[in-house]
Write a structure and sequence with these properties.
The chain has eleven helices and eight strands. It is α/β, with parallel strands linked by helices.
């Protein structure tokens, strides 16, 4: 994909940003090793609590001036094969501060060592932990949304589906940034020749293959493994999906938003012209990224406000 298609303000940050290794299958271990060197990112007026054995890997971001009893369970990205919760400390802290809510960032085990359903089980455990500890955190269990970026956005959709089927307390909303929703995109070999910046279809296929333990695009996949494969989307929580129009995941995101609406779900679809995958992470100082996150956080704040008040 030509650089000319990228929004002018994002071109410089994109060229300075390290690409995900094209030969990711051989680079998983060193990439993970680099990510494990990430240090906690602190913003003024917030506290970050790192939980121990009771909830391994969970990070709790709490604002100094907490003016809401809402909360967010956040799920990081990385194509289901790389990434860790610490990489999104800045976003989680910003959301906690801007909305005055508690943000619980989930850690999950990665494929291919831990294929489906391990990652989803770990995210479900983070949701359950927050529900069980809501009173101690000053959180209304009915005012908890789930959200994530990229693979975390796909896990967000899968978690919302699983919680719907289990009954009980439902998420107040599902907040998805450039979500990885459909393994059938990875099965499209015609997309291999398109240079999607940051995350291309060859890498995408490796992520899905690692997670599913099989080639993507098969006629049948395990329940909840691929959110876009679910036939009945009715009854799911309100959704916000934001993605760039030159992101590999644009079409599957648009289709999922359309299907949610067709099923009667309140779904917002926000498109950013000229934005490659994950642009808000590697171009955070651009007005494009700032406006995008402001729009996303505004929707999330309203979704938490609309959630039913605990009786």
């Amino acid at each position: 994909m030509r650089l000319s298609r990228v929004a002018p303000e994002l071109r410089g940050p994109l060229l300075r940003s390290p690409e995900v290794p094209a030969r990711l299958p051989w680079a998983v271990r060193p990439t993970r090793a680099l990510m494990h060197r990430l240090h906690a990112q602190h913003l003024p007026g917030l506290t970050l609590e790192l939980l121990g054995e009771a909830a391994p890997g969970i990070r709790v971001h709490r604002p100094g001036e907490k003016h809401s009893d809402g909360a967010l369970v956040w799920i990081h990205g990385g194509g289901l094969v790389i990434g860790r919760a610490a990489q999104d400390d800045t976003l989680c802290a910003s959301t906690a501060r801007e909305l005055g809510v508690t943000v619980v960032s989930a850690e999950y085990r990665l494929a291919p060592e831990h294929p489906y359903p391990t990652a989803l089980d770990d995210c479900h455990a983070a949701w359950t932990w927050l529900q069980d500890n809501a009173a101690a955190l000053g959180v209304d269990p009915a005012r908890v949304a789930v959200g994530g970026r990229s693979a975390g956005g796909g896990l967000t959709a899968a978690l919302a589906q699983r919680l719907h089927d289990e009954g009980g307390t439902q998420p107040a909303g599902q907040w998805m940034l450039c979500p990885m929703l459909d393994d059938r995109t990875a099965a499209r070999r015609d997309l291999d020749g398109v240079r999607h910046r940051v995350w291309n279809n060859r890498i995408n296929r490796f992520g899905w293959r690692s997670y599913l333990g099989a080639e993507p695009g098969a006629s049948r996949v395990p329940r909840y493994a691929v959110p876009a494969r679910r036939e009945d989307l009715s009854g799911l929580p309100p959704a916000w999906i934001g993605v760039g129009d030159i992101d590999l995941f644009h079409n599957e995101s648009r289709e999922y938003a359309h299907r949610l609406r067709e099923a009667g779900v309140d779904a917002s679809f926000h498109v950013v012209p000229g934005a490659p995958h994950g642009f808000d992470t590697w171009g955070p100082r651009t007005s494009v990224a700032r406006d995008y996150l402001t729009t996303a956080q505004t929707w999330l704040g309203k979704a938490l406000e609309r959630a039913p008040v605990r009786s």
